[in-house]
């Protein structure tokens, strides 16, 4: 799941090498933390948060497959 | 190049826009964006103002706030970037979609085609509906992200339509049916009927389904990506 978010983020930003994704695994829920270059933040969030929302929707569909919940946090 | 006009009624505003642009109604798409009524409960028809926005059909999504700028940009991208073949564009889209879909469902067979610049992708699903999600929200999210990724790679925006298990087609039929049913309800009760919030393309289906019914009108209300439609019975006077 971490790789999925990493792939999407790297495909959308201008500075893919600055994309960092860490996964903090919990028992039932894992938290995926995404950080990007400051100037790319807008690209990750999108107009009215649409890109971020879409990533979260995809993430929750992917986590259903793994029987686990995942939360996406975008770190500034 | 959206154009806005204010008039006493939506009809009047539409007519004015058509005249000004020298276009027929069929060539344009209309959306009522504001309605002011200063009379008591809208009884005083004289003070009613309706604002209508019109967009040329072939240029739907933000056709550019500044056309000149866009033309210049088009020229530039044509010089800088070689014309990409449809096959190449399709390959980009397929790769991105495949990468996302494998994490959601086990089998990810994707077929696609490019038609009039729009990229159509179809996922052969496993029938679980996991790719579709509630009200198609997963499918819409996937479609949006793939669109963004392809746009980023090409340096220009392309329309991307992602479908699975004929969901889009089924949804279109359902929505048109719902629209007609709610239209009948509005006429029978004489009261406005509000529908669930929908995406722009879904609202378009509803608007089009009820376009020819003179006894009602449809309006998009609310802000942002999730506006909802109100079906309003037209009073005999207006």
Key terms:
heterodimer, A: 76 residues, alpha+beta, three-stranded mixed sheet, 3 helices, B: 238 residues, GMP Synthetase, Chain A, domain 3, Ribosomal Protein S8, Chain: A, domain 1, three-stranded antiparallel sheet, 39% helix
N-end to C-end Cα span of chain B: 29 Å
Beta-strand level of the residues of chain B, as a percent range?
25-35%
Radius of gyration of chain A: 12 Å
Domains of chain B (count):
3
How does the major sheet of chain A shape up?
A: 3 strands, mixed
What percent of residues of chain A adopt helix (DSSP H or I)?
A: 40-55%
Q: Low-confidence parts of chain A lasting 5 or more residues at pLDDT below 50?
A: none
The stretches of 5 or more residues of chain B where confidence is low (pLDDT under 50) are 59-65
Can you walk through the features of this model?
Chain A is of the alpha+beta class. Helices cover 42% and strands 26% of the residues of chain A. Chain A has 3 helices and 3 strands; from the N terminus they run αββααβ. Chain A has helices spanning 2-12, 41-45, 50-65, and strands spanning 20-25, 29-35, 69-75. A 3-stranded mixed β-sheet of chain A has the order 1-2-3, with helices on one face. In chain A, β1 and β2 (29-35) form a beta hairpin. The two termini of chain A are 21 Å apart. The model of chain A has no long low-confidence stretch (mean pLDDT 94). Chain B has helices at 10-21, 67-80, 86-101, 137-154, 167-189, 200-210, and strands at 3-7, 28-36, 49-56, 109-115, 118-124, 160-164, 193-198, 216-221, 227-233. The longest helix of chain B is centred in the last third of the chain and has 23 residues, at 167-189. Chain B has 3 domains: 3-82, no CATH class; 86-165, 2-Layer Sandwich (GMP Synthetase, Chain A, domain 3), CATH 3.30.300; 169-233, 2-Layer Sandwich (Ribosomal Protein S8, Chain: A, domain 1). Chain B is of the alpha+beta class and 238 residues long. In chain B, α4 links the parallel β5 (118-124) and β6. Helices cover 39% and strands 25% of the residues of chain B. Chain B contains 6 helices and 9 strands. Classes of the chains: A alpha+beta (76), B alpha+beta (238).
